[in-house]
Amino acid sequence: MDTPIAMTDSYYFSKDRIVLTQAQLRIPGLAMFGRHTIKSAISPLSTHYHPHCFEVTFVLKGTVTFSVDGTDYHLKGGDIFLTFPDEVHSTNLNPVSISKLIWFQIDSCVTDHLLFLDKATGTLLQKQLYSLPSRILSMSSAMPQLAEEAFEHALHQTSPRLTASYLALILQLLTNSAADTHTPLTLDIQQSLDYISCHLTEQISLDELAALCHLSVSAYKQKFKLQTGITPRNYINMKKIELAKQLLDSGCAITDTAMRLGFNTSNYFSTVFKKYAFQTPSEYVRRL
Predict the structure, then answer these.
(1) What are 269-286's pLDDT values in tens digits?
(2) Any bridge partners for residue 193, and if so which?
(3) CB contact burial 243-265 (16+ within 10 A = b; e otherwise)
C-alpha cells in the first residue's frame, strides 16, 4: 500500500476543473470547494487524507469508485460520499471515470462561527456529521441544484455568507435525511443490466434493451440514467472495458480482445479503452 499523503488542495482553474481554497472563499471552516467535469478517465487518486477535514463529495453525473480501509464504494449520479477527518482514502488504482463532481471540505477544528453559524450550532452540525449512519448517502431532489448554486456563488464571490448559507442548508438536509443510500433498481432496469452482463461479447443495441423493458428508446435511456447515474451506452462500454482488462490479463491479444468484445476495429477499441481506463490497451499490457 502507498504511504498516505496529507493532501491540502491548492487553487486551480481550468475549463473542466475548478478548486477554490480559503483564500478565495473567506468562509470560516470551509477549507475548499471544488467542481470537476470528467469527460474521459483520469489517473487514479493516490492514497491520501485531508488533515482534520470532513470531505463531502456530490456525484452529480456518471460513476466513480472510492476506497476506504480496503473497501471499495461504487457511486453513481445522485450519491454523496463522506470521508471523515484524517481518514485515508483513494480510488484503489481505479481511474476516476466519466462523471461530474462537486465536493467541499469542512475543517473539524473550527466550531466557533463555522459557516458563520454560532458555536452551539456549528458544534451540533459537526456532531451530526460524525453520527451519519453511512458514508454513502442519497441526494434529495433539491440537493443537486443547491450544490450547483452554492458553487456558483462561491466561484463568482457573490457573498461568502450566502455561499455558507447554502452549504449549511445542504448539510442540514443531509443529516436530517440520512436514512440510507441506494434506491433499488426497478425490475426492468435490473433485467437490462443482467442482459448486458450476459451479452458483453456482442454488439448491444439500445433498441433491444428498450424492447426488453417495454419502453421506447428515449424513455429507456432516461429511466436507466435516473436509476444508475450513467447512460446505457457509457455503462455498456465501461463493462466491456472491465472484461477487456480480464482478457488482456489472461494473455489474450489486443486485436483478439477487440474482436471478442464486438469492436469493429482495434483503433476504435483502443480509443474506447483509453477513455475508460486512462491508458491504451498496449500501455495496459506493458504494465503486466
Answers:
(1) 999 998 888 889 999 888
(2) none
(3) ebbebbeeeeebeebbebbebee
